[in-house]
Amino acid sequence: MEAPELPDIVGALRAVLPAECVLERAEERRPYECDGLTAFRSVPAVVVLPRTEDEVRRTLLTCHRLKVPLVARGSGTGLSGGATPHPAGVLLSCARMSRVLEVDPINRIARVEPGVPNLKISEAAAPHQLYYAPDPSSQVACSIGGNVAENSGGVHCLKYGLTVHNVLGVRGYTVAGERIELGGQAPDSAGLDLLALTIGSEGLLLIVTEVLVRLIPRPPCAQLVMASFADVQSAGSAVAAIIAAGTIPAALEMMDRKATAAVEPFVHAGYDLQAAAILLVESDGTPEEVREQVQEIERVLRAAGATALRVSESEAERLRLWSGRKNAFPAAGRLSPDYYCMDGTIPRKHVGHVLEAIERMEREYGLRCMNVFHAGDGNLHPVILFDANEPGSWERADRFGAEILELCVQLGGTITGEHGVGLEKLNSMCVQFSPAERAAFFAVKEAFDPDGLLNPGKLIPTLARCAEYGRMHVHGGAMPHPDLPRF
Amino acid sequence: MDEGDHAVLEAWRERIGAARRGGSSLRLRGAGTKDFYGEELNGDILHLGSWRGIIDYEPSELVISARCGTPLSEVEAALAAHEQFLAFEPPAFGGDPTLGGIIAAGLSGPRRMFAGAARDFVLGARLLTAQGDLLRFGGAVMKNVAGFDVSRLLCGSLGILGILTEVSLKVLPRPRLEETRRLELSAGQAVTAFNRWQGLPLPLSGAAWWQGTAWVRLSGATAAVRAARAQIGGDAVPPLDAERFWSALRHYQLPPHAAASVWRVSLPQAAPRIDVPAEPLIDWGGALRWYANVPPEIDMRERARAVQGTALHWRGAPPGKRFPPLPAAIASLHRRLKERFDPAGVFNRGRLIAGV
Predict the structure, then answer these.
(1) Interface membership of B231 toward A (CB under 8 Å)
(2) Does B165 lie in the same domain as B105?
(3) Same domain, B156 and B282
């Protein structure tokens, strides 16, 4: 959809910002029409690329005065439409605010601008044998500002936590252009924990201009155990057994046979294609610690009925075993004209049950579904394969996905573990939250942004919206950044 | 919930409704271990201690869900039976606080810098609002980004947004091995050493200093703890002595905690000593320093600010002057949140911020 022309906002922004910060020609705005969720597109009225906090503040003051919506965007790798532009609004890209401002190896913190890619922080800290722990699979591209907005996770968050556990403070601006500092290097912070509220708020509350992150020592050693199982139930039980044994591995992932079969021809990771499911269990730490933990993990996996075990013997082998996991989604794109990826979380004990339910749904809907899964966190990523050119196929995929998410909610889980609500899961929010709970979310929103200008229409469905419908739909595997590892 | 449960909630709703209509305030209270804490104590007491019991606990899920009135001792006993624990080590102040009070206060013990703060372990919460609605935020799963993170917002809110009726917390396995080393160091040397060690992959779980002695706790895999001994040096502390020290530190029962006037200063971990004519008790590897009986002419807030820290007048504060003042823009966000969640000011009026 082309945006209505709004010369007043463009003129007002031009009056307060340098010319090169304001993009108004259609061909300049077009690249911003969507994020990683390509099913939702709309070209913004104008794009602003600030380089400084003051330019962010001026942009906000202008939008606030003219009551124009503003959507912030990091690298645009998000998967739920959190950065889908408003057709009559400003798209504020943090791409030019991408400096690492400070790395303090003594206090073990880094101060960075929001457009810094996640991995760049660890690169900047590497000379001190420190790193920033959260590692979303898209970490070479995704920005720390976007990570703050989404409370991003990664394969190692079982042990090291999510963004909320690793960000110590943010500086930002309210929609009215007031500067706000939340958290900081001192662990105590007076008043309500607005930092925790801001992290994961999907750009609805504040525009973040600086992020203070915690750095931790890089573990000197890591080893990966691959375990094969003859059925998904016993793989699920093995996950619970590892945790119950008092071990928190650095990562604990599961792939079913459909997923391993999809990636193996492309990646040659060396997966056991006879196994109904494999687990990838990583241990990291000092060499002594890893040796002890790997022995423990092997013992528990054997007792849980693993049919084969393989322990990585070199860094190259460890990375090769991971590469298959990280390339599961690009592989889905090669297997099927279209795929639809879900992001529910369930209590770990229901893993086997959910995977069996999904097998039943495959037959019911006549579609294939492969499963990759942050098993340690209970975070499922079923990938439903379909062909949009086949009549009724997308509708079946959509109902299939909705049924999976409803099952997650029924089992005490959630509709999104890490991708966010954005535009994609507005409908599912109606399943998970009561009208009074959604009203409380709106109350939070109104306290920060009474006019509803920041990222309007995302995260919280209105009562009316709860009747509407729209979901992720990747056509022809055509995601932006198709080369990026995912999930 | 059975009929008795519904009756309790109904009674609370009636109290809330009556307070709202009468323009009065309710003072939410669990076990009363933190009656001293907060700015103002206003309103009639609403006792929450009877709403108790563990709702769900499955060790392999690493999650416990319990009602707000459940005593800490009950939660810790249930976890200990499965070799698990609350890694944020909430203080008990010599009593048996309720889980609701622990989360509403959001205080964390010596493991704070190593395992995380109370809020880091909050996965979900139920809130009884001023409108009488029972709302559920978050859940009992590790990863959940559906909606704003209201359950973490409630941690440390001192009850000003509503009644926290139930919480779900992440729990962790107890470390296989734990041991404490003791070193004779000055305060400055200790802070330097704590920060150097924290930059290395060592299994630290506590780093404190008091009266010329640094205490360093190691927890984790047996091999890791053994390997770390050599790097830390010092002497091994007998387990009972170690337990006594960490417990007194955790529960705020060392002499500096009990002085007539006590400042709690939170600051960057490696911050230099602040300009005060008193030796602190140091916790959190340098990030938390307690100062007892500081002469009143010394502006502790200013001294803390000078090193990017923040000072809380823990004991002996004049009324309404305990917590550090909030910047104007943040104070106004607090007022607006309070107005939307509790427009009539029913819950713990003035407890977190005077007048709010």
Answers:
(1) no
(2) yes
(3) no
